[in-house]
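#structure-requests
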Amino acid sequence: MSRARGAVRLSRSVGFRGLIFDVTREAVRLSNGRRVVYDVVRHPGSVVLIPQPTRDTVILIRQFRWAVGRWIWELPAGSIDAGERPSRAAARECAEETGWVPARVERLGAFYPTPGFCDERMTFYRCTRLRRPWRPVHGDEDEQIEPRLFTVREVARLVARGRIDDMKTVAGLQLIV
């Protein structure tokens, strides 16, 4: 049994094991005595990058997202590997997804994007003092990525017009304005 602030987990079973996350079914007795069942996405955590070649510019990536069926502009992001420090994951993902290696990685905050059913915690990092790596941009096998430099002002206009509707991107941009 596990206890979480007045609630007690009575049982837990894994319904799905995936490459990035697992889904568990958990029977819980709440502090008010009610018994409920939750389906929970268990995720190792991720990093969201705000690559800034200059204070007034930011690199976004255009990526095809199968789940929503279209290409979207977003901040680069990726999962944290087992045993990996989040700041190291941020530097690695920045190089892999933008083609730039940051000399400075600054933690800006961490947030739960969907705490109603998922324990993923996204940690946001500003990446600066960027230099080109010896290798070109390469995403994972399931990724199609196109990086592009924008001014922060251009990105704010795209958000206001609904052209950027990725929540992590909107939240991340608020950390630098």
